[in-house]
Write a structure and sequence with these properties.
Elements lengths: L5 H6 L1 H5 L5 H13 L1 H20 L6 H16 L5
Length: 83
């Protein structure tokens, strides 16, 4: 097990929540969160925030809105519109 600090824990919390880390990284972050009140508070907030986003994003956007977004992305990507 390697030492992991608060900065590293906070930087990787989203990857941790989405199971995108190696087994060793998960183990290191889990151990850090268990022993650091500040990081545990930040982790709890991220869990809550991700759950709110998940609940809010269950519905597909209206087709017209989705098409406008796609058209805008394509225009920006092609250089026809500035960001």
């Amino acid at each position: 097990m390697s030492e992991i600090n608060c900065e590293e824990t906070k930087r990787q919390v989203n990857e941790y929540l989405h199971n995108e880390l190696s087994a060793q990284e998960v183990q290191d972050i889990t151990a850090h969160i268990a022993n650091c009140d500040s990081c545990e508070t930040d982790y709890d907030f991220e869990v809550l925030f991700n759950n709110v986003i998940k609940r809010s994003c269950d519905e597909a956007p209206p087709q017209e809105l989705a098409q406008r977004i796609i058209d805008r992305i394509r225009a920006i990507d092609s250089g026809r519109v500035e960001h």
